Amino acid sequence: MAALQGSPSDGPDPGPDPEGDGVGRLRTAVLVLGRRLRHQASGDALSATEMAVFGRVHRDGPLTPGQLARAEHVQPPSMTRIVERLVSGGYLERNPHPDDGRQHLLSVSEVGAKFIEETRFRRTQWLAAHLDQLSESDRSTIHAALPALQRLADLP
Amino acid sequence: MAALQGSPSDGPDPGPDPEGDGVGRLRTAVLVLGRRLRHQASGDALSATEMAVFGRVHRDGPLTPGQLARAEHVQPPSMTRIVERLVSGGYLERNPHPDDGRQHLLSVSEVGAKFIEETRFRRTQWLAAHLDQLSESDRSTIHAALPALQRLADLP
DNA sequence: TATTGTTATACTCTATAACTATA
DNA sequence: TATAGTTATAGAGTATAACAATA
Predict the structure, then answer these.
(1) Which residues pair with A151 in a beta bridge?
(2) Contacts of B32 in chain A (CB under 8 A)
(3) Is the terminal CB of chain B with fewer CB neighbours within 10 Å at N or C?
(4) A22, B155: Cβ pair inside 8 Å?
(5) Largest Cα–Cα distance of chain B, in whole Å?
(6) Cα–Cα dist A129/A118, whole Å
């Protein structure tokens, strides 16, 4: 079916804005946001991706590297490096897996927990600061779309 | 004010999911989507960013490299390389600027226009194909959030 | 033998700095 | 002198391939 507005086969009137369809605009918005997210994070202690992984461990409890790789849709070697930086930076801790000697369980360290409290308080993150500049209506619309965006991102 | 759900100062009840706030989830969704968009595009003729720039020229008419760089939030040298590939691939054409010898105007070539028609018909793009797998309700929610996401991406 | 994770390596994207040409 | 664009170079992020350890 149509994806975010009419597809070519929907009828005789594709509208006045042929390629200005939702797909193109969504792609652009995602790419620009991601680009800015990464770049603005470069002065921070953690990169955007590191922050995402760190936040996920904090949210979803102890996880193995493999679980994290699947959740973030990166390959295992990429996650190895991300986790390596987070562990050597003191944000995450590696604990042995109770049942399986090959795996580890990653959890937020004490230092890491304190770091989250600080950054939540300071609100220095680019995304949080810029969301605050939107109208209340824009924020709630984005908030409403979040589950759908997550489902889109996690589709096989 | 609060950004996508309660901030720490909103009251005594931060909810059961401290860091599972909208900011973190939005960051993750954007990063994962961008990652998959880039990766899945690697088999295509154009990368995700190239497609975004190409689509913008198609949408918004002849543009200069500088205008494109500002619109996509990349630095001018980055846009130079993106445009270079699109021009040498035959998708875009460089035309002299009527008033200013330093600038060029980029427009979609005949081959480029045909390419857009084909890909719209084939729907091979990762994003379009996956949007089609969402429910109608999810698609319309995302569609409704698109202007807000664009404003967020374009904030100074 | 299959799975989890790591090491080694390479590629893409994008940035900063320095330069050229035009205004 | 200021602006638009390009060239040269470097860094971050992520992938694939090969390997080690455990199930």
Answers:
(1) none
(2) 72-73, 153-154
(3) C
(4) no
(5) 62
(6) 15
B7 vs A: CB within 8 A: yes
Contact A151, B138 (CB under 8 A): yes
Amino acid at B61: G
Q: Estimate in Å the CA A103 to C1' D19 gap, whole number.
A: 17
Contacting residues of A for B46, CB less than 8 Å apart: none
- Going by pLDDT thresholds of 50, 70 and 90, the confidence category of residue A66 is very high
* Structure tokens, B98: 């009527």
Give chain B's length: 156
Q: Which nucleotide C1' is nearest A32 CA?
A: C14
Q: Do B149 and A31 touch (CB under 8 A)?
A: no
Distance from CA of B156 to the nearest CA of A (A): 9
Q: What angle do CA A114, A76, A28 make, to 5 degrees?
A: 80
Give the nearest nucleotide to A76, CA to C1': C5
In DSSP notation, A72-129 reads: HT--HHHHHHHHHHHHHTTSEEEEE-SS-TT-EEEEE-HHHHHHHHHHHHHT--HHHH
* pLDDT per residue as tens digits for the range A12-50: 333 334 444 789 999 999 999 999 999 988 788 899 999
Share of chain A above pLDDT 70, in %: 85
Looking up tokens 């050597």, which residue turns up? A88
pLDDT in 10s for each residue of chain B, 156 residues:
444 653 333 333 333 344 447 899 999 999 999 999 999 887 788 999 999 999 999 999 899 999 999 999 999 999 999 999 999 999 999 999 999 999 999 999 999 999 988 877 666 688 999 999 999 999 999 999 999 999 999 999
Question: Is the distance between the Cβ of A75 and the closest atom of strand D smaller than 7 Å?
Answer: yes
- In this complex, the residue of A25, A116, A152 whose CB is nearest that of residue B19 is A116
Distance to chain A for B30, nearest Cα, Å: 6
CA distance linking residue A23 with residue B129, whole number of Å? 10
